[in-house]
Structure to design on (690 residues):
């Protein structure tokens, strides 16, 4: 991946070549050898994620889900062997993630790695794991260029390309809100690419973007854009950015008397949305890959066991996806009758309609997951509440 | 007709935004006029005013006017303290030293606020209920009326103060020639302190108004606002008080105009492009006088 980022700046290229040398050193270590399937040694699974730092919440909750999966799997064992988790803390840092991934594969000789919950680190770790022929399953990354790395890289998350069209179908066809005001934050990559998906989905579902406006993250004055949106008189405001700007936009919209509600992606899901937006964001709709409300029997069992294990705490998206990640790997190992990544990666790639606790999971031909249902959340009385579970059809 | 109405609507948006810039710009221009120094910390004083207003408003015991007055008072004190600590010791050294000191103060204040209140954007509590006034299709919110009204009132009082009061006359005297004013018995230190107090108070008031109008307060809000206000001061003619007012309004209006013509991603660039254009044709700014060389 470093080759992609060719820059003319001398400094940049010096840093880059230094990095290539570092990762090159890693690659020269002896290739991983997985223990033979008939040995009674435990099957080791590596955990890649942050236990400290800014994104520690993602890592810690993934770990909780993983530990539950380990406990459950070890009741019966996998291929007559126990499952053992090797935990490391990358603190959300790419350099540490590189060292840890190398260590997990070369030293601990893990059968597979679950992690990282973030896209950036998964891309880096995915390069290493793929070149060393070890399965890596990210329980969290949603960005682009992840599974494209190679046949050993997987993820079990709800993707925007699945969720955003499902959300628009609900908004336009079920709610009948056909005239859409689309707002994009121009200096936010996530928002720009999500707006593209939203815009295509609006067209596909017979809706119409009556006005398209642009803001920037950290902007505070939206009066100009809101005035234009008011005169376009949309049925709904679709905003593809983050919660802070979302809250400020809606406050300004209510101020000038716009009644339409806001619809957006999971970027809207921060408690600051309600803290800043207050009554103005009531009714706002966003999507998520998990909700503990209205569970299926399988999910309910998981929630109850989770609450019993972790002081009555409700599992979140990362816990559910972490649990599913390990269960998927265990199932693939059983199906392939081998804990060798080179062999069970193929049975993992064939996963179809797996009944996970975060929804049903199918890997498409390119290994991108299709998850169903999409959980639509609504802000109700200052909290995110489940509005509807929208099923996704697999083509 | 709808286009015209839309334009009117955007004009009001621009006026409200411009009033906030104008209030900060006054601080820049007054200090420059008197000691020939750019106080780059004004943006951060503006930010402090917004936070002071936020803290006061969150106590639930105060109404909008108390929050406004309280924040103004707090920033006045802050401005005087900054001048004493960071600028006065450097008054006789080169202008560059004072400028660097000002940049230091600016970083210190924003970092301090990150430490105390955290880096996140905070919502501003509702100090009074919103109302919309409609005149035909045209509408204006009570927030916009308050922003424009309060800013106008403050600028008018400043103008009267500088033109008619004794202290105002002393300030103008210092602006013309500090040494001569000193010989005539004007207490220079006091005049400078008062100048900083007034300038900072206006920036603080602007902070509260911005908090009310944008609903948001964050530690780095002063950086861009301060930069645009500085541009406004230069555009209007630095050192000229009416110039700062006009400059602020022009910058605010251009910014909104950028959004109106679908170039919102360039709205910040617009403000500075106008600045460059004006300076190309009239280097002293819109209201600036040609600098007279002292012999």
């Amino acid at each position: 991946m470093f080759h992609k980022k060719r820059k003319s700046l001398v400094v940049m290229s010096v840093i880059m070549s230094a990095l290539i040398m570092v990762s090159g050193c890693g690659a020269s270590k002896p290739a991983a050898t997985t223990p033979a399937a008939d040995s009674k040694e435990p099957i080791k699974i590596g955990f890649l994620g942050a236990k400290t730092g800014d994104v520690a919440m993602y890592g810690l909750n993934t770990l909780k889900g993983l530990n539950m999966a380990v406990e459950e799997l070890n009741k019966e064992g996998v291929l007559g062997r126990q499952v053992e988790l090797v935990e490391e803390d990358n603190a959300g840092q790419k350099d540490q993630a590189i060292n840890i991934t190398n260590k997990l594969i070369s030293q601990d000789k893990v059968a597979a790695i679950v992690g990282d919950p973030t896209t950036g680190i998964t891309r880096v770790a995915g390069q290493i794991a793929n070149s060393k022929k070890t399965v890596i399953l990210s329980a969290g990354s949603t960005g682009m260029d992840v599974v494209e790395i190679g046949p050993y890289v997987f993820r079990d998350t709800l993707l925007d390309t699945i969720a955003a069209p499902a959300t628009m179908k609900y908004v336009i066809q079920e709610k009948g809100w056909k005239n859409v005001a689309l707002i994009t934050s121009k200096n936010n990559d996530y928002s720009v690419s999500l707006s593209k998906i939203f815009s295509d989905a609006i067209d596909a579902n017979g809706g119409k973007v009556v006005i398209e406006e642009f803001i920037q993250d950290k902007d505070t004055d939206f009066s100009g854009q809101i005035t234009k949106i008011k005169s376009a008189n949309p049925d709904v405001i679709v905003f593809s950015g983050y919660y802070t700007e979302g809250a400020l936009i809606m406050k300004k919209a209510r101020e000038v008397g716009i009644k339409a509600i806001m619809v957006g992606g999971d970027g809207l899901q921060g408690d600051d949305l309600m803290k800043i937006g207050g009554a103005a964001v009531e009714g706002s709709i966003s999507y998520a890959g998990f909700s503990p409300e209205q569970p299926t029997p399988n999910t309910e069992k998981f929630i109850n066991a989770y609450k019993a294990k972790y002081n009555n705490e409700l599992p979140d998206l990362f816990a559910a996806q972490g649990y599913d990640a390990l269960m998927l790997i265990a199932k693939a190992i059983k199906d392939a009758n081998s804990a060798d990544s080179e062999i069970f990666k193929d049975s993992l790639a064939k996963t179809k309609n797996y009944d996970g606790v975060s929804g049903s999971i199918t890997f498409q031909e390119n290994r991108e997951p299709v998850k169903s249902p999409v959980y639509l959340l609504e802000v109700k009385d200052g909290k995110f509440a489940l509005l509807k579970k929208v099923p996704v059809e697999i083509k | 007709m709808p286009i015209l109405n839309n334009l009117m609507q955007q004009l009001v948006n621009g006026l409200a935004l411009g009033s906030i810039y104008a209030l900060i710009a006054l601080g820049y221009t007054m200090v420059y006029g008197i000691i020939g120094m750019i106080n780059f910390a004004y943006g951060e004083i503006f930010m402090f005013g917004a936070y002071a207003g936020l803290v006061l408003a969150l106590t639930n015991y105060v109404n909008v006017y108390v929050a406004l007055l309280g924040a103004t008072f707090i920033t006045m004190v802050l401005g005087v303290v900054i001048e004493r600590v960071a600028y006065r010791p450097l008054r006789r050294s080169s202008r560059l030293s004072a400028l660097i000191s000002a940049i230091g103060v600016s970083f210190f204040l924003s970092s301090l606020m990150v430490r105390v209140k955290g880096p996140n954007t905070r919502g501003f509590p509702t100090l009074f209920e919103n109302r919309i006034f409609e005149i035909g299709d045209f509408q204006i919110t009570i927030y916009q009326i308050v922003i424009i009204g309060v800013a106008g009132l403050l600028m008018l009082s400043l103008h009267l103060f500088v033109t008619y009061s004794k202290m105002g006359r002393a300030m103008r005297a210092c602006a013309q020639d500090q040494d001569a004013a000193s010989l005539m018995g004007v207490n220079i230190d006091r005049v400078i302190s008062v100048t900083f107090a007034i300038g900072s108070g206006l920036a603080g008031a602007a902070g509260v108004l911005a908090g009310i109008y944008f609903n948001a307060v964050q530690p780095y809000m002063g950086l861009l606002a301060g930069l645009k206000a500085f541009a406004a001061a230069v555009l209007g003619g630095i050192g000229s008080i009416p110039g700062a007012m006009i400059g602020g309004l022009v910058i605010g209006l251009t910014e909104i105009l950028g959004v109106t013509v679908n170039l919102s991603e360039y709205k910040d660039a617009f403000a500075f492009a106008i600045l460059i254009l004006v300076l190309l044709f009239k280097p002293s700014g819109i209201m600036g006088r040609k600098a007279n060389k002292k012999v």
Q: What stands out?
A: Chain B touches chain A at residues 2, 5-6, 9-10, 13-14, 16-17, 120-123, 126, 130, 132, 139, 141, 143, 210, 213-216, 218, 220-221, 255-256, 258-260, 264-265, 267 (CB under 8 Å).
